[in-house]
Specification:
Length: 550
């Protein structure tokens, strides 16, 4: 071999045009007139994801935010400086309607599908500007639901603006030292003032601290303990002079990844706030936000899975080893089979959630749609959060040593992907939320009836029979499990995974029925091979684990 050999690195072509799943989904699931209307915008996002967005994201990563607590004369200023590129990512998001598209509702019940397709293309080249966008969208929805007319005319307009000069982002300050998971333990207090409320307390994880506003929780004096005693508040960070309103920034977090995103610890020292939707019920009210950020999380996860595979596919077509291109090696093909299949399955499932969300937003959701949206939101978040970390790990391994070297840009994907199983609720918290959904808004019978209906409509009788057997098995086991407090908790993750995989298989088999796309058929067949009967683990195992290892 030539001593001057240099391996060509992976290139990113137009990320819309070259995305087999998104192209196929658009063609087979979206009304034809909308496809025609959407294509130019998606083409642009796809081109920019491998162009200007990619470059800005790289610059933003190279110039992470800094916290300047004091000015030269000792005055406390608490500035967070971010890069120019970070601002460009924000401006781009506004101009291209990354939030606005969901609220203008130009495409009726399909608006969220377009909006989330834009996010899917934008996110992997955004240095996680997608995180402020997620919270902004959640806040916009919370203002639609709980805001008064004044906030709808002002803050909501800014959050959903396409004008970069008017566009606002929002923070979501939920986590305190007492708990990211058990939010009801929050210690922040709200005192009534002549003009509203003043908030006091520590917020331990506040991302997008450069936002103009935030949604947060605090307990009014005398309110009961727990989540129901908390209230939801609207906060504007700065006054008319640009000074922080009784907010001290303690420090920026030094995180494993998401380095361009400013995440800070804050102290609220009498921060003026407006109550949203009356006192109490704070956890319930803020679930309006976090159910949206969880959908964003899932869209970002499949966006990252796609990005890892785009890079790997291009590389495998350039990398020659043992006399052949990597792309021509059977072991490579076998290795990427599950990676591609799960990416398709996850993408299809996540966009089913988005479709249901769009129907709910447009007031077109049936009771079944609403119930499934409630169940599928935690499932999509928890399942894709886990898969993306495993898949990006496998993908960087396929690059060999290059995957472990910072300046290839590959390790960053793995680091950033890891946050997706943590942020907005860990896998276990989301598994418990799945139980909550099953005991309240979406009884198991609603889910099983939906899957049975899909299975019975299949022309492929073998596939239909297999799906029915898995639903029967799951329902039998889970019905008993859901009557036992400890056992249902112990099995919650296992149950959530099984529900997701059966739902994905049904979705892909249903699509395969009328699909001309070979990949759809391959993924449907692959998924059927992956389903395992849902059997609860012996209780003595986790009880012993608790005794020996907890
Ligand atoms: C991207 C870069 C990021 C940078 C790094 C970030 C690192 C991570 C930082 C973090 O801390 S992220 C963590 C964010 N935190 C969360 O996502 C919260 C996780 N915890 C939960 O979701 C818990 O399940 C929950 C706080 C909701 C449990 O609280 P409770 O008070 O014990 O719940 P409870 O009593 O079951 O429910 C209270 C009400 O809310 C009930 O309604 P009612 O009042 O009508 O009875 C529930 O039905 C309702 N509810 C709870 N979850 C819901 C929901 N309603 C709809 N959807 C849900 N998901």
């Amino acid at each position: 071999m030539d001593q001057k050999f240099f391996q060509e690195g992976p290139r990113l072509e137009n990320q819309f045009r070259t995305d087999p799943w998104l192209q196929s989904f658009l063609k087979e699931k979206i009304p034809v007139d909308l496809q025609t209307q959407w294509r130019p915008l998606l083409e642009k996002l796809g081109a920019d994801a491998g162009g200007c967005l990619f470059q800005w994201a790289d610059q933003a990563e190279r110039h992470p935010p800094t916290h300047i607590p004091f000015d030269a004369w000792g005055k406390r200023v608490d500035q967070i400086e971010t890069s120019e590129a970070w601002q460009k990512l924000s401006d781009y998001a506004a101009t291209h309607g990354l939030i606005a598209e969901g609220y203008e509702r130009r495409h009726g019940a399909w608006s969220r599908v377009l909006q989330m397709s834009l996010l899917y293309l934008y996110h992997p080249s955004s240095a996680i500007f997608s995180c402020p966008l997620a919270m902004t969208d959640g806040a916009a929805r919370a203002l639609e639901v709980y805001g008064d007319e004044d906030l709808k005319r002002t803050a909501l307009k800014n959050l959903t603006s396409r004008d970069p000069k008017k566009f606002w982002t929002s923070g979501q300050w939920m986590t305190e030292k007492t708990g990211g998971s058990d939010v009801g333990l929050s210690l922040s207090r709200a005192e009534k003032t002549a003009h509203g409320y003043a908030l006091y307390g520590s917020k331990w994880f506040t991302s997008a601290t450069t936002s103009q506003m935030a949604m947060t929780l605090a307990r009014p004096n005398g309110a009961e303990a727990g989540g129901r005693g908390l209230s939801l508040f609207y906060v504007e960070l700065r006054d008319a002079n640009g000074d922080l309103q009784n907010i001290r920034i303690e420090r920026l977090k030094n995180k494993l990844g998401t380095k361009a995103l400013p995440t800070a610890e804050l102290e609220l020292t009498g921060t003026p706030a407006r109550l949203l939707g009356g006192e109490g019920g704070g956890v319930k009210k803020i679930s309006t936000l976090f159910n949206i950020t969880r959908i964003y999380n899932a869209v970002c996860a499949v966006g990252y899975m796609r990005r890892a595979l785009a890079l790997l596919q291009d590389y495998a077509r350039r990398r020659r080893v043992f006399g052949k291109l990597l792309s021509e090696q059977p072991l490579h093909a076998a290795t990427i089979l599950p990676m591609w299949s799960w990416t398709w399955a996850c993408s299809e499932f996540v966009f089913e959630v988005v479709r249901l969300w769009g129907r709910e937003d447009a007031g077109e959701a049936t009771d079944e749609d609403k119930a499934l949206l409630r169940l599928y939101t935690p499932l999509a978040k928890l399942y894709t959060g886990k898969k993306v970390a495993a898949l990006t790990s496998e993908a960087i391994e396929a690059f060999g040593g290059a995957g472990y070297v910072e300046d290839t840009g590959l390790p960053k994907i793995l680091r950033d992907a890891q946050v997706l199983s943590i942020w907005e609720g860990t896998t276990n918290v989301l598994s418990l939320d799945t139980l909550r959904a099953l005991t309240r808004e979406c009884p198991l019978s609603v889910w099983s009836a939906n899957i049975r209906q899909q299975a019975k409509a299949l022309n492929d009788h073998a596939a239909g029979t297999a799906l029915l057997a898995h639903v029967d098995q799951l329902e039998k086991t889970a019905t008993v499990l859901l009557t036992q407090a400890d056992a249902q908790q112990a099995e919650a993750r296992h149950l959530a995974f099984a529900l997701t995989e059966i739902s994905m298989a049904a979705l892909m088999c249903t699509r395969a029925q009328n699909s001309a796309d070979e990949s759809v058929h391959l993924v449907a067949r692959f998924l059927l091979t992956q389903l395992k009967p849902f059997v609860a683990a012996p209780e003595e195992h986790w009880r012993q684990s608790m005794r020996l290892w907890c």
